[in-house]
Amino acid sequence: MTEDKQADPWIHRSQGMKCKTCIWFVPKVTIMQGTIDTPNPVRHLGRCRRHAPTMSGYPVVFVNDWCGDHRLDENKV
Questions:
Q1: How far is CA 73 from the centre of its chain?
Q2: Whole-prediction pTM
Q3: Tens digit of pLDDT per residue, the chain (77 long)?
Q4: Checking CA distances to 7, which of 22, 27, 30, 35 falls within 20 to 30 Å?
């Protein structure tokens, strides 16, 4: 077989389907240390709001995570 037929068409498919580009992803925002109300966004951590929250809240996810429920948010691309 040639290399073209053996190539996996799904390889790197998840690169564009990470939490950071999903409409269900909400980044974690904290307050900057030493201030009262200055937001300090944590860029690598957030919550997935795809499904209803559990007793411990929405699941915590990293921006690099991905799942089968990904839906592209055009504003984040």
A1: 10
A2: 0.68
A3: 555 667 877 777 767 788 889 999 998 887 777 777 777 766 789 999 999 999 999 999 998 898 889 888 888 77
A4: 22
Q: How many Cβ atoms from other residues are within 10 Å of residue 3's Cβ?
A: 6
* Residue 57 in tokens: 């809240």
How far is Cα 77 from Cα 66, in angstroms, rounded to an integer?
Answer: 15
Cα 18 from Cα 77, distance rounded (Å): 11
Distance (Å, whole) CA 57 – CA 37: 24
Which CA distances in Å does 74 have to 16, 21, 59, 71?
A: 12, 8, 23, 9
Is 25 in contact with 42 (CB distance < 8 Å)? no
- Interatomic CA distance for residues 71 and 25, integer angstroms: 10
